[in-house]
Every structure is written in C-alpha cells, then in structure tokens.
Design goal:
There is one protein chain. This protein is an all-alpha fold and 427 residues long. It has one domain: Growth Hormone, Chain: A. The protein contains 19 helices and no strands. It has helices at residues 10-23, 25-32, 34-43, 47-79, 82-99, 110-133, 135-138, 144-171, 186-189, 191-209, 220-236, 242-272, 277-305, 307-326, 331-342, 345-359, 365-377, 382-394, 397-418. Helix 4 runs antiparallel to helix 18 (382-394), helix 5 runs antiparallel to helix 6 (110-133) and helix 12 runs parallel beside helix 18 (382-394). It is globular and about 55 Å long.
C-alpha cells in the first residue's frame, strides 16, 4: 500500500483543496441556500408541507448512501481506481445539479425537484467518500489536521465566491446574465447549471495532479466478492477496534444533527423569519465567511490538540448557539446566533475527517472512509424524519428544528466519554 508522503506535496494539496472549492457549489447553491429557498417559496404551495417532503427526499437519499458507501469503498480498496470512482460520481453529480434547471415555479414540479435533490445528494455523498480517502495520499501524518482544515477552509471560500457570483449575476440585478428573463424564475433556476459548471471546472485539476493510490488491483468481479466479504469481516471485528467503533457511533449521531441543520437551515430562515432569496443568499455568504475562518483557524489546533478536543469544542459551541437560535425572534438575532454557530461547522467536519485518516489502516483506507460516510448516513433519515414529523404535528418549524439539539448533545457525550484524546492507525 502507498505510504503517506514524507513531505508536503504542495501541488497535490492545492489540487485536492481546489476540488473542495468546486464541490462547495453543491451545498452552497443546491442543498442549503438557493434551491431549498426557491423550492419552499416558489415551487411548493406550503412551507410546512415542503419541509416534510424535503425531509423524506433526503431520508431516501441517505439510505442509498448508507448502503452503497462502505461497499463501494471496500471494492475500490481491492480493484483500485479510486480516482475513476471519484470522477464517475462527480460527473453524475454535475449532471443531476444541472438538471434542476427544469424545476419550474409550479406545484406540478415538486416531485421533479425532490427526485433531483435526492439523486444529486447521493452522487455528492458517494463522491465525497473517494475524495476524503485521498487525504492520506496528499498529506503526511504530521499535516493531516492542517490539510483537512485547509480543504474545508478553501471549500467555504469557494462557497462564498459561488454565492457572490450567483447573487451578482442572477439574483441582485435587474438584468440577469446571459439574457435570462425573470419570468418563470429562469434567473433563479439558472443558478443550478451555473453551480454544476463551477463544480466541474474546479474539480478537474485533482484528476491530473493527485496520484492514484495503490491497491490490490483485483479483477472487478473478484473485487466485488472479496470487498463485500472483507467489509463484513471488518464490521464483525469492530469490537476489536473499540475506538473506531465508538467514534463512528458518535459521528453517526452528531452528524445526523448537523446534516439536518444544513438541510433545513434556509427553509427555516425562509419559513420562520420570512427571509427572501436575496436575504438568504447574503446570509449564506456571511455564514461561509465565518465557517471558512473557523476551519482555517482550527486547522493547526487539530494537529496540536488532537482531533477529539477540536470536535468537542466545535460541538459545544454549535449546541449553545443553536439553542439560542431557537429562541431568536428577529432577523438580527437570527443573523447573530447563526453566524456564531457557523464558525464552528468547519472545525467539527474537518477534525472528524482527520481523525478517521489517523485511524484508517492503509489497506482498508477507502473502506474506512466508506464506513465514515455510512456513520454519517445510516441514520440520516432519523433527523429529517423527526424534524418533519414534529414540525407537521406542532405546525411549527421552530419546534421541528429543536430536535437537532438533542442529536448534537448525545453525539458529544459519546465522543467525550468513549473516544480517547489521542488516536492512531489500528486503534
């Protein structure tokens, strides 16, 4: 297996981070700020019903990701071609994002929007498995936390740049770019193919610069058979790797909370605070600035303190500011607590990735990141489903969003009591 480089390959690190800059267009435009707001206010007829339907779509997408991610990771470790897998899911994701152009502002297109976001989410999450598995290839052990943090930081900056471009070219202008009309929401729908192009252009350098990790290079049919068998053995032997098992359990719970928060943040802003698309975009830009600064600032903390304390500090902050956000009664309070909360998104995500990179055995690297994705998605239906049910039962988005805090608290407790401060490969 390939050992991590003895020194930092800056070209490879740059290309790897640039992919994060590119794929940030999906969370920034499609899954968090623009498309959910458009879907809630222009496509669906009722904000609460839209919240529940959106939750169902993400639930089904999460189940598909949960099933496929560890299996594909195990197969890739044996057949090789991690970059080919990454390219395939990247192109699938780009196509699915671009196709959202056809979701017009009418209730007849609700199902097309839901199917589109589900397919795009599946492709994005599966591509992320193979992207994350390349981290130990581009970063030596001494720099895992920093490079992971740099990637998240660059990704957030990319999200900012993409949101600014969308705001100036399509939303905050009397004459949208490319001669688009505001009739039939063409200027808003165009943000999806724009995001797809953004993703594709900035993702390409990785495929030319980052080296392909070595693998067993088994024939595909044998790799599928052996990879699944190997995955089953790994799952059975997790009891012999308690630190990995407990971390995956903690990650499963707190990421269920964070994923639900990401998915419903703009819907909450639009439905509870009446924020229009332009306001949501402006907030999204500011949020990405804070999140990017947080990821970059904590990149060195991860390598210094270790990933566990970094994750714990981030979760405590998200819980505190998230709780305050539930009691916000004005847009000013929403902005204040939302931006403070967003500052700690990046550190939690980045340190989680670097912790897995430290735990992963070289021969099972992609498989381990598949399990990492599984832990983030295996119960992904629970958060959105509970939020949707509570929101519908209480006829309140605020009540639904309150369920997120419980997931974060339980995940933090598992992390703090069961995962040691320092971890290493094979733990």
């Amino acid at each position: 297996m390939t050992a991590p480089a003895a020194r930092l390959n800056r070209r490879a690190v740059g290309a790897w981070c640039l992919y994060d800059w590119g794929n940030s267009a999906f969370p920034a435009i499609v899954s968090t700020f623009v498309f959910p707001t458009y879907f809630t206010q222009a496509v669906a007829t009722d904000a609460i019903a839209a919240t529940a339907a959106w939750g169902t779509a993400l639930t089904l997408a999460g189940l598909v990701v949960a099933v496929l991610s560890p299996v594909l990771g195990a197969v890739a470790d044996r057949a090789g071609g991690q970059k080919s897998w990454l390219l395939a899911f990247t192109l699938f994701n780009v196509a699915a994002i671009a196709a959202l152009w056809y979701v017009r502002p009418h209730a007849d297109f609700v199902w097309l929007g839901l199917v589109g976001i589900a397919l795009a989410t599946i492709a994005f999450e599966l591509a992320t498995v193979f992207y994350n598995a390349l981290l130990p290839t581009v970063a030596p052990p001494s720099h895992l936390g920093r490079v992971s943090g740099w990637g998240w930081g660059v990704g957030y900056v990319g999200g900012i740049a993409c949101l600014v471009a969308v705001l100036l070219l399509f939303v905050q202008t009397e004459t949208p770019a490319f001669g688009l009309s505001k009739e039939d929401a063409a200027h808003v729908r165009a943000t999806s193919p724009f995001a797809a192009l953004w993703y594709l252009v900035f993702a390409l350098p990785l495929f030319f610069i980052v080296a392909e990790p070595h693998a067993l290079r088994e024939p595909v049919t044998r790799a599928v058979r052996n990879g699944i068998a190997d995955l089953v053995r790994t799952l059975r032997t997790l009891k012999n790797r308690p630190m990995l098992a407990w971390f995956l359990g903690a990650h499963m719970v707190y990421m269920d909370g964070l994923n639900t928060l990401f998915a419903f943040g703009s819907i909450y802003a639009a439905g509870t605070f009446g924020m229009q698309l332009e306001e949501v975009l402006t907030f999204g830009i500011a949020l990405n600035v804070c999140a990017g600064l947080g990821a970059l600032a904590f990149a060195w903390v991860d390598d210094g303190w270790g990933p566990k304390p970094t994750i714990a500090v981030g979760l405590v902050a998200v819980i505190l500011f998230g709780s305050a956000l539930l009691f916000a009664t004005s847009k000013t309070e929403f902005w204040l607590f939302g931006l403070l909360l967003g500052t700690f998104f990046g550190p939690v995500q980045s340190a989680s990735r670097s912790l897995v990179a430290r735990l992963a055995r070289p021969e099972h690297r992609t498989q381990t990141f598949g399990l990492f994705a599984l832990s983030a998605r295996i119960t992904t239906f629970v958060g959105p489903a509970i939020l949707g049910w509570v929101a519908a039962a209480a006829a309140s988005q605020r009540a639904g969003m309150a369920t997120v805090i419980a997931f974060l608290i339980v995940g933090l407790a598992l992390l703090w009591w069961k995962v040691p401060a320092r971890v290493g490969a094979g733990t």
